[in-house]
Amino acid sequence: GLICIFIADYQTNNKTYRSMITTDKVIEIFCIADDFCKEYEKEIQNHQLQAGNVSKKRNRQTRMSQSEIITVMVCFHCGTFHNFKHYYRFYICEHMNSYFPNAVSYNRFVELQPRTIVPLMLLLKLVGFGECTGITYVDSTAIKVCHNKRIYSNKVFKDIAQRGKSTMGWFFGFKLHLVCNEKGELLNFSLTKGNVDDRNPDVINVLTKDLFGKLYADKGYISQKLFEMLFDEGVHLVTGIRSNMKNSLMSFRDKILLRKRSVIESINDELKNICQIEHSRHRSTHNFIMNIIAALVSYCFFPKKPSIKFEVEKSNQLTIWG
């Protein structure tokens, strides 16, 4: 294989697999995660409560560091793997042993995953998210946890997940609400139950925090009350109109940018088909949350993201957007 491909080809059970993770990308993710975890541990130690008169403090370190655990989880969503157990046992523990010499067993790794949820969330917030440029897109996608025929036999998400309806029909699971800019960078996200409306005020307040300018959405966000609430906060909601609604005046620039909603739809497609954010093999709610967050962090490290390229040509008569 090529030198730039990290363990380009390897065989397991008479099958050949190929990883698309470069060594530079693995080192980059680890360095960023390790530097962040060191600063995070310093802040935690500075704000810890004193143990009083207790002479011995239990602060036992795990065999794998938090930065190594985060790197393993994020790299899984960067490659072409579909099964995390196979990825860890036959790829991390065997072919990447020189990069992770302190790798623990698979069962132990699954137990250690929930311990990194706080630093992983902060890493996504402080390093992964982009900046608002005045052009933002909002959309939601369904996260199915099982087939509709197996709803009553699902025990992991019993009384947690709910039935919902999207443009593709009914589903059982959750909704992932995303906000991105025209560069394809994530600005915020929210995870709700499947029966929560996209126009829910609590969800919108979380997504539009610190936003300004234009917010482009599909027809599912049409609401006069929602438009007025966002307008008072300095955000102009731009949506299409339904067939039974009166036509409203819209600028040529807004019409062009509204047609570019494929940016956030492409992000949802990459999260599902590349990052494996949706599958039915979850065995606990903790690891379900970790899978969602790790997939979002992995997307932030993608070298190429869906984006819009447009230029402004100014003249004495017209301003043309192309």
Q: What does this 3D model show about the protein?
A:
The chain has helices at residues 23-46, 66-78, 84-92, 106-112, 117-128, 201-207, 224-232, 252-258, 262-273, 285-300; strands spanning 9-12, 15-18, 135-144, 162-166, 169-181, 186-193, 213-216, 235-238, 312-314, 319-321. The strands form 3 sheets. Strands 3, 4, 5, 6, 7 and 8 form a 6-stranded mixed beta sheet that branches. It is of the alpha+beta class and 322 residues long.
Features:
single chain, 322 residues, alpha+beta, six-stranded mixed β-sheet, two-stranded antiparallel sheet, 18% strand, disordered N terminus
Residues in β-strands, percent: 15-25%
- Give the integer mean of the pLDDT values: 84
Structural class: alpha+beta
> What Rg do the Cα atoms give?
22 Å
Note the gap between the termini: 42 Å
- Low-pLDDT parts are 1-19
Q: Which H/E pattern describes the elements?
A: EEHHHHHEEEEHEHEHHHEE
Tally of individual helices? 10
Tell the overall outline.
globular
- Helical percent range? 25-40%
Q: How many strands, what sense, and barrel or not for the largest sheet?
A: 6 strands, mixed
DSSP strand count = 10
Layout of SSEs?
Elements: E1 9-12, E2 15-18, H1 23-46, H2 66-78, H3 84-92, H4 106-112, H5 117-128, E3 135-144, E4 162-166, E5 169-181, E6 186-193, H6 201-207, E7 213-216, H7 224-232, E8 235-238, H8 252-258, H9 262-273, H10 285-300, E9 312-314, E10 319-321
Parallel strand pairs: 3-7, 7-8
Antiparallel strand pairs: 1-2, 3-5, 4-5, 5-6, 9-10
